[in-house]
Amino acid sequence: MKRSVILIAACVLAALCWFGWRADARALLAGYLALWWFVTGALLGGLANVWLHQLTGGDWGETIRTPLLRAARWLPLACLLFLPVLVGMHLLYPWAGTQALEPGTAFRRWWLAPGAFAVRSVAYLVLWSLLSWIELRARHRSPARAAACLLAYGFSSGLAAVDWIMSLQPEWYSSVFGWLAGTGQMLTGLALAVLLIDREAARPRLPDLGNLLMMYVMTWAYLAYVQFLIIWAADLPREIAWYLRRDTPGWHAVAWSLLALHGAGPVVILLSRHAKQAPRVMGMLAVVLMAAHLLDCWWLVLPSVRGMQAVWAWPAALPVLAAAMLAWPALRGARTKGREVHA
């Protein structure tokens, strides 16, 4: 019965994706890129938290290590799923199509050449797969290895954010964008860990995880605010173009939602000692943070893509439905195994 329901749901979803591609292929691919960035960032952020624990120590890391390493096994597959973006880059990136970059930008023309973009993309994906392979097969913990992996992750994820997200608007730039993207990934990775662990069994460690979550939330909010403040205060056309794309009532609502769900709301909750000790509250907060970060990925990607039609909303949401259907059995299995470890 379950297999027939899954098969029917898959067929319906495939039909919707086909109609979405016909309605607005660019919107469907943009939604796919946003979802891919969210999923891969969560897996990478989880690994980064594992490496952070190897450097700092503490009982909090023992609680989340096993489920995050189990989740990291999916990272090579997630990297492979970037292929549709490479194939359809001419739909998303103006520099990959007929639109020429501004004159006097020789380095950017070289950096954003389709061939160089593809080579760098493959290099990032191979590096991340290699990092997960090394950590999964390591027989002992090593602070030196963790430090090297964190440096490689931080450098590559920042460059990847510039290549895959910022270059959707090649005229725009921000010096903190890579840091902002990396902080969001580590926040989402820790939220995923809180969601996967047996929170009742890990109750003594929940306050530590809550404090770390609050640090990530505050850092992300600070970086996002500083980026907005500096760019808006300078009021340079090239810099404010990114925010002007989001200067519509719909995207204003998204911005306020991010402020509430990705910033102020979680901080207020995590300031409460009782909230951080409540397994159900922490689980609900982890779900909210992950949903808010997915909304943030849409905020980063969708307005930056030129030429999307007015029907972008439902084609862009289709990859989320597909990923949820595929990820749910894996998440359930990871949580069940996590409970066995705690037991």
Task: Describe this protein's structure.
- By secondary structure, the protein is an all-alpha fold.
- Helix content is 79%, strand content 0%.
- It has 15 helices and no strands.
- Helix 1 crosses helix 9 (177-196) and helix 9 runs antiparallel to helix 14.
Summarize the structure.
The chain is mainly α. Helix content is 79%, strand content 0%.
Number of strands: 0
Q: Unreliable segments (pLDDT under 50, ≥5 consecutive)?
A: 338-343
Terminal CA distance: 32 Å
Q: What is the general shape?
A: globular
- The helix/strand series, from N terminus to C terminus, equals HHHHHHHHHHHHHHH
Instruction: Characterize the main sheet.
Output: none
Radius of gyration: 20 Å
Number of domains: 1
Strand content: under 5%
Could you estimate the helical fraction of the residues in percent? over 70%
Q: Mean pLDDT, as a whole number? A: 84
Counting DSSP H or I runs of 4 or more residues, the number of helices is 15
Quaternary status: single chain
Helix and strand content put the structural class at mainly alpha
Question: Which keywords apply here?
Answer:
single chain; mainly alpha; 15 helices; globular; disordered C terminus
Question: How do the helices and strands line up, and which of them pair or pack?
Answer:
Elements: H1 2-56, H2 59-72, H3 75-80, H4 83-87, H5 89-92, H6 106-111, H7 114-137, H8 143-164, H9 177-196, H10 206-234, H11 237-244, H12 249-270, H13 273-276, H14 279-301, H15 313-342
Helix pairs in contact: 1-2, 1-8, 1-9, 1-14, 1-15, 2-9, 2-15, 7-8, 8-9, 9-10, 9-14, 10-12, 12-14
